[in-house]
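ok so i was messing around last nite and threw this chain in just to see what happens. nothing serious, just curious
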Amino acid sequence: MPAKGKHRRPKTQRLTRVLAAAGTGGAVLALPLIGAAGAHAAPAQSVTEKTVRSAPAAAKAPAAKGAAARTYTVRPGDSLSGIAEDQHVRGGWKQLYQDNRRAVGDNPALIHPGLKLTLGHAAAGATRAAAAPKPATAGSSAAASAAKAKTVSAARVKTAVARAERAAATGFTLPVTSGAVGTGYHVAGSHWASGYHTGVDFVVPTGTPVKAVGRGTVVSAGWGGAYGNQVVLRLQDGHYAQYAHLSALSVSAGQAVTTGQRLGLSGATGNVTGPHLHFEIRTTPNYGSDVDPVAYLRAHGAPVA
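result:
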């Protein structure tokens, strides 16, 4: 029999003590805490993942809004000022040009049919984003190059806008109010002395008023041989405008004229097959110094259909 007072402790108590001792160290107690943390972390982690996954969708919202910006396709006879007015563009043609200057180019007057323009400030943001230089270390050659490019680009835009403003201030118009272009510039043909057409023909009936495309002085007004009755006008920029095959003259040599002033009436005098207005732009008053009249008119804010 066991000695008195020396009972063996049950094993369960030693296990309890071990657990208690372990509990004192925090190992056993830490396990359920870790488990609890894991149990609670799962929902928190799911919320975080859900937030992260939904972030790109939220980020795409502005892009989707920008993608819905209005666009306009340029048609024959359009000008930036006309488009801005018809489409109610805030800021007028200047803002429309700034928003689409990458597509239009350095000259806001030279837009062509089929060109797509973005209307509104969405285009401005896209242009600025595309034109913005990449970040570079201050003082580095990359930063200097980016700054120089930005300055040059701003100078070109300023120059183009200034030219357009000067054209608007001077005032240019088409030589006839209506009438499509028949035979174009530089069309080849053996019936022309130069081998090609030196101007453009506006298809209009006899008696259509013919106007000065810009301010200038009449160099000559009278018979011009194969050109029939003609008027040659010296414009303020030094170019010359010729109007041929007229049926009647309204001005005389040495007379100063203003933009849109009547010079005469269209007709079929001289070497022609039918009534029309033959129109040339020259660098001198003489035959053979012709330049593209359509490009000239468009550059001065008078687009040809």
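not much to say yet. Residues 12-67, 122-133 have pLDDT under 50 and may be disordered.
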